[in-house]
Design a protein that fits this description.
- This protein is α/β, with parallel strands linked by helices and 397 residues long.
- It folds into two domains: 146 residues, Aspartate Aminotransferase, domain 1, CATH 3.90.1150; 237 residues, Type I PLP-dependent aspartate aminotransferase-like (Major domain) (Aspartate Aminotransferase, domain 2, 3-Layer(aba) Sandwich), CATH 3.40.640.10.
- 40% of the residues lie in helices and 14% in strands.
- It contains 13 helices and 14 strands.
- Strands 2-8-7-6-5-3-4 form a seven-stranded mixed sheet, with helices on both faces. The chain has a three-stranded antiparallel sheet with strand order 9-14-13. A two-stranded parallel sheet has the order 1-12.
- Strand 10 and strand 11 form a beta hairpin.
- Helix 5 packs parallel to helix 6 and helix 7 runs parallel beside helix 8.
- The termini are far apart.
- The structure holds 4'-deoxy-4'-aminopyridoxal-5'-phosphate and glutamic acid.
- 4'-deoxy-4'-aminopyridoxal-5'-phosphate binds next to helix 5.
Length: 397
């Protein structure tokens, strides 16, 4: 007998984590899988950041941390917002958590009540809709079309606002599409939000530094709504620190306090030596960020160049993050050796089993016509993986 709560029974597992695990399992069996499923930089954490983490262990940072994070890290985060985004936040408005995913969970659980509506632009990152479900909120999904680089417009948002709308989730640069909202697009959205004092904007800016079109724009810059904007960010992507698990928010003080209360009950506080490494990441030499960005840009160009000639695929050129999100539905209904591909799940399983390339079905991101491919890997692996994808797709008739 199993007695899982209804809340958990209704929760979908993370598709990104699941595909990553499938790839790892096949690899453990000795199969040469190229894993383009999970989104994480393939770079090692830079040496100076690792050194700070090691020093923290030697300096005996082995006791419980304060719930919202160490004061020096919260100060370093506030300074980062001033330096990089020209946004004024006090350290009290910063809460550090065990990764941006944990930050998001804190925010959604602190903000959303049963029945509250949350506007979620699709394609969305897999975790958003599940967290809203956990909070017993209602996902109101609106779709960005490939013709508009999968972005939604202020008009689309305005049309679905009701008296129950409590939050809008934004992600720029976007996972899974790589699209980046311009300042003008964000300003138009801010003008809509301005009119509705109950609506908060939760903006996920974890890919801020992986931007191929110039500077990052945050919706937090618009004064008229700033006290209703919650910025999610962290060190995972910019500093190749996914395993250290450090994310943070900048929020109105009341929400930072609510998240701190929740965190005090759920986590105690983020891991101590990882926090010290994050201080170094934010305050130390920033040249590693630029170097990794250059590599991602080169890999993006390579990926697009190799994929654009694959028959039956529609592709938009990402402006940021490290994903391409090709439309592949022209392959649905096709078969090979009696195996029929009905949808993006089938296609990803087929690509894994036939081509030994792990990707993620668009289904999980609310866009079932697409699949997500991460190009956060070496040029050699990208070249080999896309060749395998091309060959596997060509077998489908
Ligand atoms: N937001 C987005 C859009 C992501 O892709 C991810 C995945 N890393 C996260 C948040 C969570 O990041 P973290 O590893 O810091 O939990
Ligand atoms: N965010 C990454 C992804 O989308 C990592 C996996 C996860 O955190 O779900 O692949």
């Amino acid at each position: 007998m199993e007695f899982v709560s209804e809340r958990l029974a209704n929760l979908s597992p993370s598709a990104t984590m699941a595909m990553n695990q499938k790839g790892r399992d096949l690899k453990a069996k000795g199969i040469d899988v190229i894993n383009l499923s999970v989104g994480e930089p393939d770079f090692n954490t830079p040496e100076h950041i690792k050194a700070a983490g090691k020093k923290a262990i030697d300096d005996n940072f082995s006791f419980y941390p304060p719930a919202p994070g160490f004061p020096d890290l919260r100060e370093a985060v506030a300074a980062k917002f001033k330096r990089e985004n020209n946004l004024d936040y006090s350290p009290e408005q910063i809460v550090v958590s065990a990764g941006a995913k944990n930050s998001l969970a804190n925010v959604i659980l602190s903000l959303i009540d049963k029945g509250d509506e949350v506007i979620v632009p699709a394609p969305y990152w897999v975790t958003y809709v599940e967290l809203v479900k956990l909070a017993e909120g209602k996902n109101v999904v609106i779709r960005g079309e490939i013709e508009n680089d999968f972005k939604v417009t202020a008009d689309q948002i305005e049309k679905v606002i009701t008296p129950k709308t409590k939050a809008l989730l934004l992600c720029s640069p976007s996972n899974p599409t790589g699209s980046v909202y311009s300042k003008a697009e964000l300003e138009a959205i801010a003008k809509v939000i301005e009119k509705h004092p109950r609506i908060h904007v939760v903006t996920d800016e974890i890919y801020e530094h992986i931007n191929f079109v110039g500077g990052h724009e945050s919706i937090g810059q618009f004064e008229s709504i700033k006290d209703r904007v919650i910025i999610i960010n962290g060190v995972s992507k910019a500093y190749a620190m996914t395993g250290w698990r450090i994310g943070y928010i900048a929020a109105p003080l009341w929400l930072a306090k609510a998240c701190t209360k929740l965190q005090g009950q759920l986590l105690t506080g983020p891991t101590t030596n990882a926090q010290k490494a994050a201080v170094e990441a934010l305050k130390g030499d920033q040249s590693c960020v630029k170097e990794m960005l250059e590599a991602f840009k080169r890999r993006k160009d390579l990926t697009i160049d190799l994929m654009k000639d694959i028959p039956g695929i529609e592709l938009s050129n990402p402006d940021g993050a490290f994903y391409v999100f090709p439309k592949v539905d022209s392959y649905f209904g096709k078969s090979v050796d009696g195996r029929k591909i009905e949808n993006s799940n089938d296609l990803c399983i087929y690509l894994l089993e036939e081509g030994h390339v792990a990707t993620v079905p668009g289904e999980a991101f609310g866009e079932p016509t697409c699949i997500r491919i991460s190009f956060a890997t070496s040029d050699e692996k990208i070249i080999e993986a896309i060749e395998r994808i091309k060959k596997s797709l060509a077998k489908l008739k």
